[in-house]
Amino acid sequence: MTASEHAIATAEAYSAHNYHPLPVVVATAEGSWMTDVEGRRYLDLLAGYSALNFGHGNRRLIAAAKAQLERVTLTSRAFHHDRFADFCTKVAELCGMEMVLPMNTGAEAVETAVKTARKWGYRIKGVPDNMAKIVVAGNNFHGRTTTVISFSTDPEARADYGPYTPGFEIVPYGDLTAMEAALTENTVAVLLEPIQGEAGVLVPPPGYLPAVRRLTRERNILFMADEIQSGLGRTGRTFACEHEDVVPDVYILGKALGGGIVPVSAVVSSREVLGVFRPGEHGSTFGGNPLACAVALEVVDMLRTGEYQQRAAELGEHLHRELGALTGGDAVEAVRGRGLWAGVDISPAYGTGRAISERMMERGVLVKDTHGSTIRFAPPLVITKEDLDWGLDQLRAVLAG
Ligand SMILES: *Cc1c(COP(=O)(O)O)cnc(C)c1O
Description:
The longest helix has 20 residues, at 106-125. The two termini are 29 Å apart. The chain has two domains: 3-57 and 308-400, Aspartate Aminotransferase, domain 1, CATH 3.90.1150.10; 71-304, Aspartate Aminotransferase, domain 2 (3-Layer(aba) Sandwich), CATH 3.40.640. A hairpin with a 4-residue loop joins strand 2 and strand 3 (41-44). The strands form three sheets. Strands 4-10-9-8-7-5-6 form a seven-stranded mixed beta sheet, sandwiched between helices. It is globular and about 60 Å long. The chain contains 14 helices and 15 strands. Helices cover 37% and strands 17% of the residues. The protein has helices at 3-14, 47-50, 59-69, 84-95, 106-125, 146-150, 155-158, 176-182, 208-218, 271-274, 290-304, 307-326, 353-362, 385-399, and strands at residues 26-30, 33-36, 41-44, 99-103, 133-137, 168-171, 187-192, 222-226, 250-253, 265-269, 332-337, 342-346, 365-366, 368-370, 374-377. By secondary structure, it is α/β, with parallel strands linked by helices. Pyridoxal-5'-phosphate (PLP) binds at residues 49, 105-107, 110, 141-143, 193, 197, 226, 228-229, 254-255.
């Protein structure tokens, strides 16, 4: 048995099977490349679902984390610490907002946004007790907690986890008429991914997000943008909402905010909205800890110059040009996305998304399928054009059989 086989068999025996990882056992990684326990190298075109926007082992981020590890790592929010104020002001500034509520994982940030919207609805908007509704889109992915899966439309994500949390209305993504019809006096928020990642990198029809913005503004409803995967440079802008000149009331951030080192998430909004919380009404032991703040501060600092966004825009244009050329043949049915982010629908005749991913892996490229026959590409934003081209060569070779 090889070291890889042993590690995989042991993981199979001792871990819950809530994932079906590709059969690769990573030992080290740097930039866009990962090396397995046998020393084989793989180009990472998934980047931890965008948690690794700045690549593996980014020197600036590692240095920031190391320096903080030597100072103080955790205080809990029982005490102030000297990175917290800086973290909150810099994250708020990046978002053009006023206040920040830090959490750890994306799902927790979504939960926090749901609680925020409800509290805002009761305290500020004047919705009658327990009547608040939040409108979400079909095929959404906002995380895995019981409340969040309560408004999922994915049977796999929901089955056997009921009873579900009430208070959510689901409308088809991109359908403005359905959205408008779903809004009532008791609607406190609309929660959307500006581009639906897990659904297969679905970009809504042009004009949809601005129209939702107009509707929500007219009716005093919060527009909450889940930018956990789409945000922080991935699409060629700091936020995916910017492509449509939309400014939401609430940004939900996660993934890349932790620099691929620690989980860091945040809800970012105005004083009117986040001002609803009083001590004891919400919290997290690790949320906003010194290590998380130090890493996230460095992330925000790196995003301030716009160079990563620029890179994602330029390389993204190249990626989409190359992938678009493949839609001429019969292997690729559709390509969607923005910036360094693409969902590629492979014709079922060429194999399942899983089978394509495994064949890519055999050629030294790591990607992940989503929903049957879609392959998702989300390389680290630091990838070189040469590496990206090599990765695309491997895709072409796999599809050529
Ligand atoms: C990944 C993701 C989440 C959940 O984040 P976790 O850190 O895995 O809890 C929520 N929303 C979107 C859009 C995501 O991509």
